[in-house]
Amino acid sequence: xxxxxxxxxxxxxxxxxxxxxxxxxxxxxxxxxxxxxxxxxxxxxxxxxxxxxxxxxxxxxxxxxxxxxxxxxxxxxxxxxxxxxxxxxxxxxxxxxxxxxxxxxxxxxxxxxxxxxxxxxxxxxxxxxxxxxxxxxxxxxxxxxxxxxxxxxxxxxxxxxxxxxxxxxxxxxxxxxxxxxxxxxxxxxxxxxxxxxxxxxxxxxxxxxxxxxxxxxxxxxxxxxxxxxxxxxxxxxxxxxxxxxxxxxxxxxxxxxxxxxxxxxxxxxxxxxxxxxxxxxxxxxxxxxxxxxxxx
Length: 296
Known about the structure:
The chain has about 300 residues and is α+β, with helices and mostly antiparallel strands.
């Protein structure tokens, strides 16, 4: 019998962690273990990714967290928690694929036993907490609808995109709004759509903020000057101050992703790294030696 890891250990937090600390830890772990970032060992990454999402689903819900703190994993086993009577598992679950979608459909097939048994831990892509058009009861209603996940490009998540897809044998046009974030779920009349975003080779994202690294030559860091830095919209001219140190963080206000639930955009943060040449010409080496003699 395999022993399940402690949910707090999976997220790297202690048992007194606040809701905000749990959410931040979850975002960090989900980004770190996204299968697209571990193509060399995707199977292990998918397993860890599922564990991270399962841990977050429990610890982010006050009632489920309280049950877990009191009974551990047994709280969610058939017949477990609060002295429930033993019985068969209450899940009725179907899964499959339509076009670009994968889906999991779960219904409660029975009563009694574990009072938490109606919660679905089956699909790691369907347990992010972002909803559209749903309140606190949205999660329970969502279990009565088929759930699908779709993967889109990073830039499509910034700019929004329309997709022609096939669901249940019918062609549908769906609109994904600008600023959609990893794991966000969009509720349609007859299904729930979970959005996954492919990593970008240059940009990383945290909410509406964009992060990137940018290398500049030693001469520019020393003397200062102007450069053009890419953003998710266009190139932006940035002034580099003389004497800029490696690791300096530049903030480009309003150059991040659109705010999904509000106006404006996030910011873009650029970490400057100074590029040290591997080889020097005779003249360059002489110039560096002159600087060395000057104590620079």
